[in-house]
Design brief:
alpha/beta, Rossmann fold, five-stranded mixed beta sheet, 3 helices, 20% strand, PFKA
Length: 210
Amino acid sequence: MASSDSDSQLKIVHGDAGYILEDVPHFTDYILNLPTYPNPLRSNPAYSVVKQYFVHMDDTVPQKVVVHKDSPRGVHFRRAGPRQKVYFKSDDVHACIVTCGGLCPGLNTVIREIVCGLSYMYGVNKVLGIDGGYRGFYSKNTINLTPKVVNDIHKRGGTILGTSRGGHDTGKIVDSIQDRGINQVYIIGGDGTQRGAAVIYEVGIEILSF
């Protein structure tokens, strides 16, 4: 790859033959010499087949699948999927899940899959449910989520975590995340929710950089 330009929103990497990677921010952009650890999936017999399908760090997916032989390689995106190395030890993870905005089918299923995936696949035992959407971050209403707690929630409508619409205090949210020692945040919602997540990220990065 020949050159790269980055900002808080998007990293553009240029390579040979018109290759362009629209990348996303990563821990290592802000924390130098960040240690890595073997992915717990490697030693989990229930997921031994996954070892064959770890995603290489340089794997990307093209925006345009069909091209002509003389076309530039074009825009690519970072490929998602499990890596051989992770950036958290299982015992160090304190995750939280929040649902925001309007209701839609399957919210409880998403919550259940995150909790069970973290627990069974990655050995994570500390998962907190934020009650009441973004504003729930600065209230004391939380739910400790375990596979037992979420076992049958996919059979119910709505979201067991509750939700809310409208404005929120981003500073209070970031303070709450920091005060609770949360280091993984799973935000479930639509366009407005994701815009809010981007603002939370930006404020959090400012604090980290400071």
